[in-house]
Amino acid sequence: MSDASYRDAIFSTPLDRVASFSFDERVVACFPDMIRRSVPGYGQILAMLGLIARRHLRHGGHVYDLGCSLGAGGLALAGRLSPDAFRYTGVDLSPAMVARARQTLADECPEHAMTVLEGDIRILDYRPSGMIMLNFTLQFLAPEERDAVIARLYDALEPGGVLVLSEKIKADDEQDNAWLVERYHDFKRANGYSELEISQKRNALENVLVPDTLTAHHTRLARAGFPRSLTWFQHLNFASLIAFKA
Ligand SMILES: C[S@@+](CC[C@H](N)C(=O)[O-])C[C@H]1O[C@@H](n2cnc3c(N)ncnc32)[C@H](O)[C@@H]1O
Ligand SMILES: O=C(O)C(=O)C[C@]1(C(=O)O)C=C[C@@H](O)C=C1
């Protein structure tokens, strides 16, 4: 890999005031390590994206990766599909993420048609697409903004198109939710995060990453017009859904 990646130590020292989490230069520099150690099943979800595209995307179809960060979704597709099989557009609001994603995709898959736009998925002028990936991004939008974005993605999808939506989730039942969150913290401990890192990150994400329940996600997808959606992956309080446009 051309992009140096550092171990995530952002919340490892006591901070007087824990600022709200943001995708700044410091997060970008350690992002591959952070997401791998913080999202249960992240690698498994990425590994399936190419297989889903092979089944659902017509040859040469267009794919969006919204909130693409360093372009991991694009790399996953390029690993499974030939250059003529798809065109990829990653979109991210963070200039530091966009710069690194462009460099990584150019270095790692020079033969593929990969574009990365700096933009806001809430106001993007979407082009018709066969597949849209929204991996751990919707959770960062204000809850009242989520319906409108999903409705616009439904409109952008071509007939037969699919939306892959991966999210941190909340369980419907409070007791179930507490168990999942406790085991999620065990997962983080097992991946080398300290108590201080876990609690400071939790504070930084408060009101920034607001998870929905799976029920809320499926209901929203139906409201936007998707006739069918299912949860195809769940590991603790992280899940991935797929929604089909008729
Ligand atoms: C957890 S990361 C996504 C991880 C990435 N999809 C992956 O698979 O590696 C969330 C990303 O969403 C981006 N983001 C948040 N709000 C956004 C918005 N309104 N428009 C575009 N990108 C946004 C952030 O800058 C960040 O890079
Ligand atoms: O660390 C956490 O508590 C998380 O929720 C993980 C999570 C995410 O789900 O997006 C939060 C922020 C970073 O983008 C990477 C991973």
From TrEMBL:
InterPro entries: CmoA, Methyltransf_25, SAM-dependent_MTases_sf. CDD domains: AdoMet_MTases. The keyword Cell wall biogenesis/degradation does not apply. Pfam families: Methyltransf_25 (PF13649). It comes from the Bacteria. Its EC number is 2.1.3.-. It catalyses: prephenate + S-adenosyl-L-methionine = carboxy-S-adenosyl-L-methionine + 3-phenylpyruvate + H2O. Residues 63-161 form the Methyltransferase domain. GO terms for biological process: methylation; tRNA wobble uridine modification. Keywords: Methyltransferase, S-adenosyl-L-methionine, Transferase. The keyword S-adenosyl-L-methionine applies. GO terms for molecular function: carboxyl- or carbamoyltransferase activity; methyltransferase activity; S-adenosyl-L-methionine binding. S-adenosyl-L-methionine binds at Y42, G67, C68, S69, D120, I121, N135, R202. HAMAP family: Cx_SAM_synthase. Belongs to the class I-like SAM-binding methyltransferase superfamily. Cx-SAM synthase family. Catalyzes the conversion of S-adenosyl-L-methionine (SAM) to carboxy-S-adenosyl-L-methionine (Cx-SAM). Homodimer. This is Carboxy-S-adenosyl-L-methionine synthase.
